[in-house]
């Protein structure tokens, strides 16, 4: 599997795990806690595999930036949490940075 696919799996695992943190109620609810633990295990396993072909700085930037944006969208649609204009602009800049790395950086190709 190529590094981009492995990184995408890691991102999905992180987003799922983080989405269930609130429902785990401080790790007192069994099923959400299991989703968190399994999700992060999947995340770090696939992230470690992705880093065999993607530079760590580039991989982490893509992983964290994409995760931030996806979690904010889930928080909006699932929990009704809204963002003010500066937060939306900041996330837009993060997303722009991820796109620039993926589309134009030669470092991401290593």
From TrEMBL:
One of its GO terms (biological process) is glycine betaine transport. Gene3D superfamilies: 1.10.3730.20. SUPFAM superfamilies: Multidrug resistance efflux transporter EmrE (SSF103481). It is a multi-pass membrane protein. Keywords: Cell membrane, Membrane, Transmembrane, Transmembrane helix, Transport. Belongs to the drug/metabolite transporter (DMT) superfamily. Small multidrug resistance (SMR) (TC 2.A.7.1) family. PANTHER family: MULTIDRUG TRANSPORTER EMRE, SMR FAMILY PROTON-DEPENDENT DRUG EFFLUX TRANSPORTER SUGE. This is EamA family transporter. It comes from Devosia litorisediminis.
